[in-house]
Amino acid sequence: MKGMSGMAGMDKKAPAAKTGQGVGVITAIDAKANKLTIQHGPIPAVGWPAMTVAFKANPPTLLRGLRVGQRIGFDVKTQGMAAEVTAVRPQ
Description:
By secondary structure, the protein is mostly beta strands. The chain has one domain (24-90): CATH 2.40.50.320. It is built from no helices and 5 strands. Strand 1 (18-30) and strand 2 form a beta hairpin. It is globular. It comes from Sphingobium baderi LL03.
């Protein structure tokens, strides 16, 4: 259609969300920013190697009772470059 030449690529969909489980150690908690930083092992379900990531906590109540240095199991949801922790299990 005339005038539509600049619209190429507009039909791209957002990447699908992926979920997985990981195990790691909490290295920082920022309650004001609702962030939980975890040094974790590989999470094959989302294609991640071992690394340290600052995750959004969803819901924010996940941060209650956690402490730096604590070993945890956790559920993660990723979509594109966004990642959030959706559940935490103290180990």
